[in-house]
Amino acid sequence: MMAIRELKVCLLGDTGVGKSSIVCRFVQDHFDHNISPTIGASFMTKTVPCGNELHKFLIWDTAGQERFHSLAPMYYRGSAAAVIVYDITKQDSFHTLKKWVKELKEHGPENIVMAIAGNKCDLSDIREVPLKDAKEYAESIGAVVVETSAKNAINIEELFQGIRQNCLENGLRKLCTALWRTQIGGSSSCRNPSSLHVCPVSG
Ligand SMILES: Nc1nc2c(ncn2[C@@H]2O[C@H](COP(=O)(O)OP(=O)(O)OP(=O)(O)O)[C@@H](O)[C@H]2O)c(=O)[nH]1
């Protein structure tokens, strides 16, 4: 019988950086030039096989517009991981990313896995944020960082694989029991973190 592990992930970041586009690329392998700004938040899932298990991402894509900022805690509380997105062509969006990290550290779940995505890397000829800056910052806060392009499907799979691997490796210790539910044969039960299976990650 297949076991399903659920992993709640939220996406945070300035409006227009490409959060919805990243989720759309990951879940539907689709890119829409005319995608509308998110209102409140949207929810999608994607289940990926891993050995003899299924890993189900429960993805909350939050709205980046300032007027929705106060809703964000509803989505990052209880998340195992946060993807904080900036646009490599907009220095301001990197500044906003730092504010999100600060907020997560102050009010987010303890041990939340943080992944930084520098999106729109297909536009590197008009880049404002050097990758070196993002790497140094990510290292300083213990986050993983990757440059992505939702448009050209660059590093999107790798981003989510990285999150999955980090969550599994950390076991999320205290949080693990609450956040990873193992559903076997339709009934839910919690698993000991030490029994978490670590999947090999390529790339
Ligand atoms: N060139 C390029 N454009 C992108 C990429 N990702 C998203 N876009 C474009 O950027 C714009 C904003 O994308 P969204 O996915 O709506 O951004 P968002 O962060 O979800 O915005 P909010 O919902 O307002 O928070 C759209 O016009 C997208 O087509 C990318 O990787 N490359």
Automatic annotation (TrEMBL):
Protein family (similarity comment): Belongs to the small GTPase superfamily. Rab family.
Primary gene name: RAB31
One GO MF term attached to the UniProt entry: GTP binding
Gene Ontology annotations of biological process type: cellular response to insulin stimulus; Golgi to plasma membrane protein transport; phagosome maturation; positive regulation of phagocytosis, engulfment; receptor internalization; regulated exocytosis
Entry annotated with the keyword Nucleotide-binding: yes
Organism of provenance: Physeter macrocephalus
Compartments in which it is found: Cytoplasmic vesicle, Phagosome membrane; Early endosome
Main location: membrane
Protein keywords: Cytoplasmic vesicle, Endosome, GTP-binding, Hydrolase, Lipoprotein, Membrane, Nucleotide-binding, Prenylation
Protein name, UniProt field: Ras-related protein Rab-31 isoform X1
Cellular component per GO, a single term: phagocytic cup
Bilayer topology annotation: Lipid-anchor
Cofactor: Mg(2+)
Lineage: Eukaryota, Metazoa, Chordata, Craniata, Vertebrata
Keyword hit for Oxidoreductase: no
